[in-house]
């Protein structure tokens, strides 16, 4: 009782830290679904119109990388390649920076060995550097297709195994919600790469597969608490909406801490690895991780859990309680105490005091399940 009463004196930060917030996640589920739907629509439109900026490892072709200077920029490099009979209409010309030194990378379709050497010498002459300072890399398109096929097979195998495990550990409805959330994360992450034109490399694919693991972990943490609360409220007439809200508020701080602990090292990779040391490979990996971690944290709260509640409400035990869920002081009481006992007295107090806000604190009187009994007089 003392712990419950003391929790009312805490501010928002204290309630968040102790898992005692009273946010109506279920009541706001439509906002999350609409926002995710809009992101998916933007993703599909961008993929249909712009596609993905696939790197040489997937498309195949030849890439030259030459040091840049004040007199030799990307336009000059493009002109040199075109003057040597290479089609540059779909060429990718990028200016890269590593350790404070800029270089220009030109990627075109597959070329013969003679053309590669000729263009290498011409770029060295135009840039005023030794021919050995101009690097040439070549990848066949068949190798890129092999990487893509293996990545797709790995993704399908991962989803199947995860679905079977969650269905065995929890239930099939949780497996569906978790899979939908993971596909949501990957699809939107790919959409962000398409919209902003980020280059997709093998490091990006590895990052996307890593995203799946993080998204699954964060979702399982929430589902485990939901499962505990389903058993805890099994003897009461508590709807799935209330169970979802209680579970989400109780693990909200843990989810935020997990996401923050995962995002900070990734930001360090971007700032130090890519910005300071100029490691392009780290940038490609870190950008995909950062995007996926943020989307995964969002989906576990606003997609996976509300979707699970919608699916669970179709069960016979929860069907008659659809559309009914506690908010404000009632929800706060359930979150703080972990039970629905004394909920009627909380509801009566809220009805008596119409000016009470939804976030009204839970006091000692609201926790009483019945009025105090009068003391009996002793017979003399």
Please give a structural write-up.
The protein has about 375 residues and is α+β, with helices and mostly antiparallel strands. The chain folds into two domains: about 25-50 and about 145-320, Multidrug efflux transporter AcrB transmembrane domain (Multidrug efflux transporter AcrB transmembrane fold), CATH 1.20.1640.10; about 60-140, 2-Layer Sandwich (Alpha-Beta Plaits). Helices cover about 65% and strands about 10% of the residues. It contains 14 helices and six strands. Strands 3-4-2-5 form a four-stranded antiparallel sheet. Strands 1-6 form a two-stranded parallel sheet. The two termini are about 35 Å apart. It has helices at about 1-5, 10-15, 30-50, 55-60, 75-85, 115-125, 140-170, 170-195, 200-230, 240-275, 280-310, 315-320, 330-335, 345-350; strands at about 55, 60-65, 90-100, 100-110, 135-140, 200.
Q: In a few lines, what is going on in this structure?
A:
By secondary structure, the protein is α+β, with helices and mostly antiparallel strands. The protein has helices at residues 2-7, 12-17, 29-49, 56-59, 74-83, 113-127, 141-169, 172-196, 202-232, 240-276, 280-312, 316-319, 328-337, 343-352, and strands at 53-54, 61-67, 92-98, 101-108, 135-139, 199-200. The chain folds into two domains: 23-52 and 143-319, Multidrug efflux transporter AcrB transmembrane domain (Multidrug efflux transporter AcrB transmembrane fold); 61-139, Alpha-Beta Plaits (2-Layer Sandwich).
Which helices and strands appear, and what pairs or packs with what?
Blueprint: H1 2-7, H2 12-17, H3 29-49, E1 53-54, H4 56-59, E2 61-67, H5 74-83, E3 92-98, E4 101-108, H6 113-127, E5 135-139, H7 141-169, H8 172-196, E6 199-200, H9 202-232, H10 240-276, H11 280-312, H12 316-319, H13 328-337, H14 343-352
Parallel strand pairs: 1-6
Antiparallel strand pairs: 2-4, 2-5, 3-4
Helix pairs in contact: 3-8, 3-11, 5-6, 7-8, 7-9, 8-9, 8-11, 9-10, 9-11, 10-11, 10-13, 13-14
